[in-house]
Amino acid sequence: MDVYKEKVEYLTPFLSARIIRVQKTGNQEMTRWNIHKETELLLILHGGMDIYIEQTGYPLRTGDVLLIPSNIMHRSQKHHDEHDLIYLVLQFEMKQVLDRSSMIYMPYFFNPLNSLTSLNHVIMVNSTLRQKISDKIQLINVEAEKKEAGFELAISNSIRSILLLLLRSDPNLNERRMGPILERLLPALDYIEEHLNEPLKTSDISRLLNMSYYHTAHLFKKAIGMSMVEYMNYKRIKRAEILLTIHHRTVSQAAYEVGIHNLSHFNRLFKRWNDSTPKAFQLAMRGPDVESSSEERRPTKAPIDPAF
Q1: Nearest to residue 179, comparing CAs of 126, 125, 104?
Q2: Which of 45, 65, 168 is nearest to 121 (CA)?
Q3: Are residues 61 and 205 in the same domain?
Q4: In the chain, how many domains are there?
Q5: pTM to 2 decimals?
Q6: Which of 111, 143, 153, 186 is the most exposed place for a label (fewest CB within 10 A)?
Q7: What span, in angstroms and rounded, lies between the C-alpha atoms of 189 and 168?
Q8: 100 inside domain
């Protein structure tokens, strides 16, 4: 499978963001999988396209806005019609955009167990919110084109304004915000993420947090709803999904690279989280292109055949 690990070239070295205008004509094949560290917002100016974020498809048309969180697999396909497709792509590095005054909201935008993709439903059903975000994106595009004095400030402020709009429009704000217990566990979550391919011991996690095993286990269960081992396995399976989908790994290679050397155990864990074997998941994600639906407006489960 062809995959593009995009390296985003920012507008300036001091502004971790860029905006580009894309135009496509005629019938287009499904793009290869794409993944990058930047958060992305799409605004459809004209025409239609299907975007797939992992296994969920979003049919988009003129005026629609879509949020793609960082480090999430996605791909796209222009609708099969005679209309040109024109859209704006805004990409920015969240941690660089948030300043000191807004850093307290970092956990909201980086909750490891609550993806920002769920905000797409909020954007889809709230036309006022969608229009406000659209206006901000177009303002950013004008600033990027003109590059007048202070355009960096204008773009940064507009991006933060979009984040504020999303935060205040989120009906699940309290659940998405990371509580103090989860924040206390952040060093452990980061450690697990960085060492998934190695043997992970719960005793090492407890030592890292300078807490007893029982206290650490209690906090994991209370804050995340999983035991330490369950969370480690969850993160390993999520990493394996990427390896299987975009890096051409065999099932055994993927299992080994996420630190699970027993293939039967890996298959059982994978099926527990995906209701599918690793091989079936891999084949489905490589399936035939999905035709766009001109009637469907709500997100759909890909068959499994995502976009972008």
Answers
A1: 104
A2: 65
A3: no
A4: 2
A5: 0.69
A6: 153
A7: 27
A8: yes
